[in-house]
Amino acid sequence: MTDATAPQGMSPDLRADYMNLTRRKRLYNGILLILFVALMVSGFQTADRRNAGGFWDGLPHVFDFPAEVLSEAWEKIGALPANLVTYFPSLVETINIAGAATLLGALFAIVLSLLSTRGLARWPRLIPLFRRCLDILRAVPEIVIALILIFVLGGGPVPAMIAIALHTVGALGKLFSEVNENASLKPLEGLESVGATWGQRMWLGVIPQVAPNYLSYALLRFEINIRASAILGFVGAGGIGYELKNAMSWGKGQYDDAAAIFLLLFAAIVITDQISSHFRNRLTHGAVS
Q1: Is 232:164 a contact under the CB 8 Å cutoff?
Q2: pLDDT digits (tens, 9 = 90+) for 2-27
Q3: What is the mean pLDDT of residues 262-283?
Q4: Structural element, H or E, at residue 258
Q5: How far is it, in rounded angstroms, from Cα 255 to Cα 232?
Q6: Distances (CA, A) of 60 to 43, 48, 54, 169, 251
Q7: Separation CA 91–CA 230 (nearest Å)
Q8: Which of 51, 134, 161, 189 is the most buried (most CB within 10 A)?
Q9: CB atoms within 10 A of CB 132
C-alpha cells in the first residue's frame, strides 16, 4: 500500500501511523504465509519418508485401481440391477444408524447446550464443566469410540450408532449453545415471574425461538452422519461400509459389487444433501422461491 491509497483527509501523524500499521500487517501476513508453506513442505516430506518415498513412485498409477474397478463393473453391467437390490438393505441400515444417532445426539445436545449457555444455565457455576464435556465429545473421532465399543460390545450397528451419537452431542452442543446466546431473555423473565420451573422456562421461552436453527443444524449433521456411518462399516460396525470393505477385500472378481455399493452410497448422500438443503433453506430463510 502506498500513500496514494491511504484515507484522504488524514493529518501527517495519523497518515504515518496508518502506514506503519499497514506495513506491520503485511509483514505479519507474509510471515504467516512463509510458516504455512514451510509446514506444508515439511509435513509432505515427512509423510513421503515414512512411506519410503513411495508417493512419487505410485503417483503415475493413482488411477489404475479405479480403472480396474470400472472396467470389471462395465463387463458385468448386466448384474448391476441385481447388485443394487442386494445391497440396498445395507444402505437402509446405514441410514438408520445415522438417523438414530442424529436424533439421540440432538436431544442430549439440546440439554447440554442449555446447561452451558450463560443466562440460561440451571447451574451457572457448572458451565465450564458442561462446556469441557462438549469439547471432549467433539474432539474424540467417531472411529476411535467405535473401535472401543466394538471391542466391548462386538461388531454390529449398535456400536456405530453410539459412537456417532456421542460425537454428534459434542458437535451439535457447541452449535446449539451459540444459537442459545442469541435468544431473548424477556420471555424467561415473564415465565419466572409466574413461578415457572427451569425446564418450563426453557421449553416455553427458549425452544420456540431457536427451534428452526436447531432443526437446520440437525439436518446438516444428519448428512455428515450418513458418511460417518458408512466409514465406520470398514471397522466392522455394519451397514453398507462393511459390505464395501468385504467386496474390496475379495479383490478382482468382486469389483462389480463394489461399484454397485459406490453408486448406492453416492446416490444416498446426494439425495439426502438435496432434501436436507431444501428444508434447511425453508427453516432459515422461509419458502424457497
Answers
A1: yes
A2: 444 555 556 777 777 878 888 888 99
A3: 83
A4: helix 255-285
A5: 20
A6: 21, 15, 11, 42, 21
A7: 9
A8: 161
A9: 11
